[in-house]
Amino acid sequence: MSKKVQYTLEYPVRCSPTILYEFLSTPAGLQEWFADKVDEREGMFSFSWNGSVEKAQVIETEIDKFIRFHWLTAPGDEFFEFRIEKSEVTNQTILVIKDFAEKREVADQSQLWEYQVKDLFHRLGN
């Protein structure tokens, strides 16, 4: 199995970091755009898509700044992260997503994130 590579996606978003963080870090918020059903217990999130369940643990978080998850089925050094940054030039809020994928699958995975983020923006009224 080839080693996965980390890739980063950035999306400008028109909403406050506080509201955006709610959509990135709470079961109710994530269920709006990321998965069909989301449950959380003591930092362990269960994400359901079409009846299959994947579990991820929160490994690091800073309120209104970022949240980093680790899939339980992934190697220990892999994670996916939602980070909220502010452009110093335009003062615009930027959603930064970091994830891992096989090198040949980065384009497909990026497209999947693009689809998910469009759903998020729709929920946010962007």
From TrEMBL:
Domain START-like: 1-125
Record-linked InterPro entries: START-like_dom_sf, START_2
Coiled coil: none
Pfam families in the cross-refs: START_2
Gene3D superfamilies, sorted: 3.30.530.20
Protein name per its UniProtKB record: START-like domain-containing protein
